[in-house]
Write a structure and sequence with these properties.
This protein has 357 residues and is an alpha+beta fold. It has eleven helices and twelve strands. The chain has helices spanning 40-47, 115-129, 185-200, 225-233, 237-247, 251-255, 274-284, 289-296, 299-302, 304-322, 326-341, and strands at residues 3-7, 10-17, 24-28, 33-34, 55-65, 76-78, 87-92, 95-99, 103-104, 140-149, 165-169, 175-179. Strands 5, 6, 7, 8, 9 and 10 form a six-stranded antiparallel beta sheet that branches. A three-stranded antiparallel beta sheet has the order 1-2-3. A three-stranded mixed beta sheet has the order 4-12-11. A hairpin with a 5-residue loop joins strand 11 and strand 12. Helix 4 (225-233) crosses helix 5 (237-247) and helix 10 (304-322) runs antiparallel to helix 11. It is globular. The two termini are 34 Å apart.
Length: 357
C-alpha cells in the first residue's frame, strides 16, 4: 500500500504497488479494512499522521528438534515458566516443535530467532524433560512477530498483554483490526466483517457464505485417501500420506502436473516431490524460491540443512518452468539462502545451483 485514497473525507480505496512489476494503480472499495498485522499502525498513519499506535509487536520464536524428544500422540505445555511465559512441546510433521518466546521487538520483514531465545527454550525443555538437549540437535528455528493490542498502561512484558483482538474505526471510516491469534481467526473475521457492514452500510445476503465452506481440497477428501493414492499411483506411503494431507482431493492434479519423472523426491528422507514445485507455480502462484521452500511446502521449517540442500533443485525446476536465465537463478539462490539464514542461528551451509536452467 503506497497511500490511501479519500473522497469527502472518507477512505475509499488505496494506491497499491505490485512488487513484481513495480506497477502502481488504484483499488477502490466501499469499505477499506486494514488487516496488515505488524504494519497496521503504519497504514493508520497514512490515514491520519497523528494517529496514536494501537499495536505492539512481540516476537515469538520456535525450535525444531528430532522426533525422539516428543511423543507422537501427546504434547506438553508448561503453563508458567519462571518468568511467566508459556512453553509447549508438540509432535509436528515427524519432528518435535517447541516454543515460544515472547518479547518486544522492532518491526522487520525477516525476523530471526536469537541465540538467547533458542537457549531459553532448550533450558526449560532440559529441566522439564530431564534430558540433556544439546544445541547442535536443533535442526531448524524460526521466528514471527505478533501484532498485539497495545495496552493503555505499559506492561511489564509482552507475555502479559491480552491476546484479544481490537477493531478500530477512524474518523475517515478506515476499519483496522489488530491483536488476536491463530485460534481465534474465525471470530476475528466475523467481527471485522460485521463492523465493515455497519460502516459501509452494506446489504449482505442472509447468513454467512463461508461459515460451512470447506477448504480447497476438502470437498471429496476421505480418511483412506492416502492408502488409495499409494495403491493406485504406486507411491511410497509416506509420500502418499503427505500429498493426501497437504492437497486433499486435489492430489491427482499435483501428481499429474508434469511427467512421471517429477514424482522423484526433492531430497532423501522427506516426502516432498518435484511435482509439488511445478504445481506451486501453475496452481498456487509461486514466483520465488522462498515461496516454494517456505510457503507452499514446509521444508524450510522442518530441517534447515535439508532445505539448503534441496534449494538448487527447486531453483532449477522453477527456472525451467518460468524461463529464468542464469542471473535470475543466482538471484533466487541468494534469496532462498537469505531466507534460510533467518531460520537458523548456526553458521549456514553453502550450496551452488545447477548451471543449467
Amino acid at each position: 500500500v503506497e497511500s490511501l485514497l479519500k473522497e469527502n473525507g472518507k477512505v475509499v480505496g488505496a494506491m497499491v504497488r505490485d512488487k513484481e512489476t513495480n506497477q502502481v494503480w488504484p483499488v477502490l472499495a466501499k469499505v477499506v479494512i486494514n488487516a496488515t498485522g505488524i504494519f497496521a499502525d503504519a497504514v493508520r498513519k497514512m490515514d491520519d499522521e497523528n494517529a496514536t499506535n494501537i499495536m505492539t509487536p512481540s516476537q515469538g520464536s520456535h525450535v525444531l528438534l528430532p522426533e525422539k524428544y516428543c511423543s507422537k500422540e501427546d504434547g506438553l505445555i508448561i503453563p508458567k515458566t519462571k518468568d511467566g511465559r508459556v512453553l509447549f512441546l508438540l509432535p509436528w510433521l515427524g519432528k518435535a516443535l517447541a516454543g515460544t518466546t515472547d518479547h518486544p521487538e522492532k518491526i522487520t520483514a525477516l525476523p530471526r530467532a536469537s541465540d538467547e531465545e533458542v537457549e531459553y527454550i532448550l533450558e526449560h525443555l532440559r529441566h522439564y524433560l530431564g534430558v540433556p538437549i544439546s544445541r547442535p540437535e536443533v535442526i531448524a528455528t524460526w521466528s514471527g512477530l505478533r501484532p498485539l493490542v497495545k495496552p493503555k498502561e505499559a506492561p511489564t512484558n509482552t507475555a502479559s498483554i491480552s491476546r484479544d483482538h481490537l477493531i478500530d474505526v477512524s474518523l475517515s471510516k478506515l476499519v483496522t483490526i489488530v491483536g488476536g491469534k491463530w485460534t481465534t481467526y474465525r471470530k476475528m473475521g466475523e467481527d471485522v466483517i460485521d463492523v465493515a457492514i455497519s460502516v459501509g452500510k452494506l446489504s449482505p445476503l442472509n447468513g454467512s457464505l463461508t461459515k460451512d465452506l470447506k477448504l480447497l481440497g476438502g470437498r471429496h477428501y476421505k480418511s483412506n485417501l492416502a492408502h488409495e493414492v499409494a495403491a493406485f499411483e504406486k507411491l511410497p506411503f509416506d509420500i502418499a500420506l503427505h500429498l493426501a494431507k497437504s492437497y486433499g482431493d486435489r492430489v491427482d492434479a499435483v501428481i499429474d502436473v508434469d511427467n512421471k519423472s517429477k514424482r522423484e523426491r526433492l531430497i532423501d528422507g522427506f516426502p516432498y516431490i518435484e511435482a509439488e514445485v511445478i504445481y506451486g507455480i501453475t496452481h498456487e502462484h509461486a514466483l520465488h524460491s522462498t515461496d516454494v521452500i517456505g510457503r507452499r511446502m514446509r521444508l524450510a521449517f522442518l530441517d534447515n540443512r535439508a532445505a539448503r540442500l534441496a534449494l538448487p533443485k527447486v531453483v532449477s525446476l522453477m527456472a525451467k518452468q518460468l524461463k529464468w536465465d542464469k542471473n535470475r537463478m543466482h538471484e533466487e539462490m541468494d534469496l532462498g539462502t537469505q531466507f534460510l539464514d533467518t531460520m537458523m542461528t548456526k553458521p549456514p551451509i553453502t550450496t551452488k545451483p545447477s548451471s543449467e536452467p
